[in-house]
Task: structure prediction
Amino acid sequence: MLKPKRGFYVDAKQLATARKNIATHPWAKQTFKQLEAECQQFLIDWSEEDVYACVLSMHGQTFAYGITGCPHCRKPFPFSEDAQRAMFSRFPIKTVTCPSCKTVLPDATYTDEGAGIKRDGIEYYLIGMWNFYIAGQLLGGVRDHEGMVTKLVWLYILTNNQRYARQAIVILDAFAAIYPGTIGPRDFTPFGSTKEMGRLHLLTSIVYRVKVLLAHDYDWLYYLPELGEPSPARALLGLPGTVRDNIEAMLRDYLLTEPGGPEYDLTEGNLTELHNHEADGVRAMLAVGLVLEEPDYLKWGIRATDVFLANALGRDGMYFEGSYGYSMFTSTVLLDMGLLAMRADTAQVGSHPFESRRFFQFAVENPLDLLCQGHLPCYGDWGQDRSSNPAPDPKTMADIYRAALHFYTFSPDDALRSQAAKHLYSLYALVEKRLGTKGLDLFLSHPEPHQAAALTLPTSSIFTGQAGILIGRDGNGTTILMRVGPNYTHSHDDMLGLSYYAYGKEISADVGYSSYGTNGHYGWTTHSIAHNTVVVNSDQKMKRGQLYKPCAGGTLSFLYEKDGITMFEGSAPNLYGIEAYERAVAIVPLGASSYVLDLFYIRGAVTGDYTFRAFHEKAELSLAVSRIRSADSTWTLAGVDASKRLYYDAPGQSFGERLTTGETFHPLGKEERAQGWTPDPNNGYGFIYDLQPCEKPADNILQANWVSQEGYTLTWQGLLTGNERIWTGTYPTLDGREKHPLLIVRGTGTTMQYAAVFCTRKNKQPSELSRIHRLSARGVQVTALSVTHESGSIDFWVYSPIRQTMVVQTRFGEWQVIGRCAMVRTNLQGKIMRADCMYADEMRFQGIRYEGIRRITSTIIDVDYTKRAIRITPPLPVSGNSGYVRIARSSDTQASIYPVEHVQTEADNAVLILRDDFILSKGTVLSYSSDTLHTTDPLPLAASLTGKTIRGNRGSRGIILAIPSPKSIRIQAASPFSVGETFDIIDIEPNFQVEWL
Result:
């Protein structure tokens, strides 16, 4: 009889749904046909004897991704499955054919008996690559977690044909026999190391991702009589035991802890840091606990899921690890955790995962809100964004659709189910062609095709209040992303850096991330100098091995949107421990294109290096001034003003020139290592080479042009003071295959103000931006300039980091501004076309007075934590405001910023419904003494929690002074906490002050 032991991933009801989908949806019917054809071909090509012989041949051999590429031509191997398919021979031959030089490896020159080889200090695992690829195809792996074994099980339960089940059992039995004791892929360990980094071809946490599916496979194969028979695989290795014993031993192995990965141990329900590795461990623990009936695993997993949803996600629904790509991946992990915890929690002892609004915001709403011209936001540890398509990314849309599908299917909350349904209708047409690429797609209910509706992408700006991600959009859709939030794991040191999108492209050319721990990752792409930002004092305080500066984050100072123009400012002085470090950016439509006004203010530093680069594709950089290289010029940016000669500060010796396949150096220097090595100083400056000093422009206005081979030009114009030093340089991509130009402007002095305007256009499109000019202005630290459009319009801008009365001289008369920032647009005759008090109380121009947004402060008189509602008095004026409120305990404390969903005004007060939760994190007191509380649950968002109120369910209360470790909190207590007391960390209380941002 066809039935699962538990049906924990797919149950009998969902099996009926799958059959209905196949009969109803064309994509489901096609998926079934493809699955059937693939599995039938596998049965033809692979006998049981072939499977056993192939898999057991891997016993004692290595497994490896092969990131170091070809030892003969030194070019990288492609990583996509389609590109790799032709590289690997059929068993019993184990060879890899390099697609670049056509060398068949191993050969007489590059011999490999299975342990790998080492050439010129670099390791190559040729047999290991073959093992890696074939094992991934059969068992599931890095690219596709559903290997042939899982596909055979999908088809078995859809057809009840036991031939598919039998071959699935053979694959499980064969791999289970060699699984325990293997040490994972070798790409990330020194040659010859026996360090444990996973199992078979599966690196650390990837073991757990695949194990969930293997447990599902076993769940549906459980009652077949073949499992009680002696294991052929174990017999071939001279070991006793049944097939069932063999498979269950594999499921129990490498569980609860992650050798080779981050340290944690889930035993007794312990949680350590709540990162995505630990999340993977929890979902594997739940899956194995369900199929092997381990009640402790279920109890620990249910509670762990509650903790992850409460503490790993911020009140804005943002995941704490510093990359949005990691958030999208973690969404798939938490969806599995939620499904498994829901199945395990038959007594309903935990919260229902799909009743969590924060979870819905994280998995469904945020990914849509944060799209940058249809692209997944590119910051932190994530790959390069080389797409030139403004349409929503299909893979991202499919991930969002699947998340909504989980809430639509499993949520007990009618409101969330309704919201999920709306997203399904709007996404269905976009993702239909991708449905079926994951087996679970077949087993969940989908909307009927005729219910599809058009997807509307956001056009206004979005700010995530706790994560501190600002995405500004103008009337043309030109988009700027700037991060002001804390640095967490997987962050890059890019605070106040700009990611810039135009024409469906990520113009700012973030170098990205590929493999953790390489020399390129550790020493180059994580650092500030690899991003479009300003580096203070050459980042000389970065220690060896340090990826980014610890920082609790900054704040969004203001946000302005009106009639197509968007402007915002971020401030993060704590990043460098200086008095001021802030950046204001305006995005302004010109016509078909837009320009960006970039204002960066620094106070309290010695030097500041403003860098700018553009385009992922090949581009030429030209300046309107001459380059002046002399005989004594340094070769790298690291060599500028260096106190001693640096061995890599010479042609051919820089890190940028030697960075190569595998993100390492070739040749390796005497003291260098092939992996995880950083120089001293560890600031990334040694990766920028061919440094060419440039003359200063006579009018102190510098112009640079990047012209790309794809037909785009970016024009950058900057105001200089005359004290700056200017260079152009060259930097590498992660594996050194490409080299790109960049501009560096070094300022000096107690205060530095960088002001630039840049614009991207298609080469066939006439320029819409003419020139910028500095304007004379009265005031302290005032920057005033004009931006002339080719159409004849002129935008006059004034900005200051401090509030004051500023007087600017324009060609059309005196312009007075009270505040910090404003803009006036005129035609060539001086007629005013628009006037914007971006951050100003008022301004006067040509005798006309313009009033800015009224900024009054209200007091919270009541808080409803369940409805996310605050009652304030007096009511705030609604007209003209940004849609965000700033909330703080007092005027001299760090403010929190919340988006407002609804305002209901009464006579002397108003109720504001905010979008985000007011409860930041939760926990249970493990011990409390001397104003230090130890909690059972980690607080990975600690950088955002200092100064917040901690409130126990037994009446205890205090203010958080510091969180020195993920499970300890120093508190200024109003009343002591008791062991076992649960607590909330809350962000908003009565008597807090509120104003519009």
The chain has a mean pLDDT of 95. Residues 176 and 250 are 5 Å apart (CA to CA).
